[in-house]
Please model this.
Amino acid sequence: MKKLTFLLLLLCSVAAVAQTSKEYTQKGRELIDKRDYMEAILNLNKAIELDSKNSSAYLLRATLKEKFEDLHGAMKDYNLAIEANPKYADAFFARGNVKMRLQDYYGAIEDYTAAIGINENYVEAYFNRGKAKQLLLAYEDAINDVTKIIQINPKSIDAYYMRGILRLDFGDMKNGCLDLSKAGELGDLRAYEIIKEKCNTKATTNND
Model:
């Protein structure tokens, strides 16, 4: 009977610790929203101290480190978030963003691809992977990524605008101009400036 009581107390204690870690994480999230970043870090540190597998706490702490330009520290926390939860799409996406800032475009593409593998409708991951491919001059692959966004959300202004730019860079003037026209129709007035500059030429008109 004593042994059973002890085990029950132990289980309750473990549950309490896990819940407390979640509470610290939630408090950290609320403090970030209030821009009280130092206090947020303290709460996230406590959450991780209580539960070393708290992937959400690692992710939130990483975003704060990134905000204050501690890219090495942010990368380390994103790694820990992924180790704690290998199916954490947001952690792969966020780590990819750090790699983009560090101009590690191939590494970023790998992380965005991992995020998409977990969540096939991860629009932001398609968008940023397209940007990375654009920077590597892989225009056709980048166009495919942005096209996927439009399939998911046919009213994505940014996707039409970006695909228009990509198609112009790739030499597909007619379809690029049509994409920019669609972006303008949906509300992106920047598109019309590019249309004026690049689409109203004899070469474009004849490119059928």
In short: DSSP finds twelve helices and no strands in the chain.
